[in-house]
Amino acid sequence: MKYLARFIMWLAGWKYKGELPAEKKAVIISVPHTSNWDFFWGELAFLSQGIPAFILMKKEFFFFPLGMILRALNVIPVDRGNKDSQLVEQMITEFKQRDSMYLCITPEGSRKKRKKWKKGFWLLRKRQVFRFIWAVSIIKENIVKWGLCFIRRRMWMLI
Question: For residue 105, with 0-12 CB atoms within 10 Å meaning exposed, 13-18 middle and 19 or more buried, which class applies?
Answer without folding.
Answer: buried
